[in-house]
Specification:
Layout: H1 3-16, H2 20-32, H3 37-57, H4 63-87, E1 95-100, H5 108-120, E2 123-126, H6 133-143, E3 147-151, H7 155-158, H8 161-170, E4 178-182, H9 188-193, E5 198-199, H10 203-213
Parallel strand pairs: 1-2, 1-3, 3-4, 4-5
Helix pairs in contact: 1-2, 1-3, 2-4, 3-4, 3-5, 4-5, 5-10, 6-8
Length: 218
């Protein structure tokens, strides 16, 4: 294993165990030595976040740990972003709009999906919680995302999700974007019944569904 390869493995592991100092020091060192930042993101940042996701699903780590890892990754990306933009190599798998539907103030699940999508290489526009129906629609019109992810944690708010799809259809925007839904009370059969394109039972599955909907191969 070459020196670069060894350091990338160390960087990945530093992200997994949330060793901020080691992660940042290795990121700066590798950038200074001229490593391809895209390679660094793929084999270090993204691979690390995938391992974080696996540990979360296995209940080896918890929500605060995931959030901390995501914050460390974002700090490292701030170093790489100017280089990538200068080289015009800032590529993403796609643009995703996320939000918890109107009337619902729960967003922990949505935030975990956001972290995992970003870790997988998606650009995420996070609308937050209690997002009005027309705000989703306006965001599709103005931001032109590839995918919209809508979540609900309460049965009395999930009824607002089909309204987003209906307005997208009425305004001629439905064919321009894929819609994925999820949340505790949401079931796959219901998702298909309301006209959604996909359903994610958990954060890891949401990433795989997003890739499938956008025809992205692993």
């Amino acid at each position: 294993m070459g020196d670069f390869d060894e350091k990338i493995v160390r960087l990945k592991n530093a992200l997994v165990i949330r060793d901020r100092k080691s992660f940042m020091d290795l990121t700066r060192e590798l950038v200074e030595k001229g490593i391809d930042p895209v390679d660094l993101i793929e084999r270090g940042f993204r691979a690390g976040m995938e391992e974080v996701g696996r540990k979360f699903e296995a209940l080896e780590i918890f929500i605060p740990d995931m959030i901390e890892a995501a914050e460390i990754m974002e700090e490292g990306l701030r170093i790489l972003r100017p280089i990538l933009e200068k080289k015009k190599e800032l590529k993403t798998l796609g643009r995703v709009v996320l939000g918890t539907i109107q009337g619902d103030v729960h967003e922990i699940g949505k935030n975990i999906v956001k972290i995992m999508l970003q870790g997988a290489g998606f650009e995420v526009i996070d609308l937050g919680r209690d997002v009005e129906i027309m705000r989703f629609v306006d965001c599709v019109r103005n931001e032109k995302p590839d995918l919209v992810g809508i979540s609900a944690l309460m049965t009395n708010t999930m009824v607002n999700i089909p309204k987003v799809i209906e307005y997208l259809r009425e305004l001629g925007l439905r064919d321009s974007v894929k819609v994925m839904v999820g949340g505790a009370p949401v079931l796959e059969e219901w998702a298909l019944k309301i006209g959604a394109d996909g359903y994610g039972e958990n954060a890891m599955e949401a990433v795989e569904v997003a890739k499938k909907l956008l025809n992205i191969k692993n």
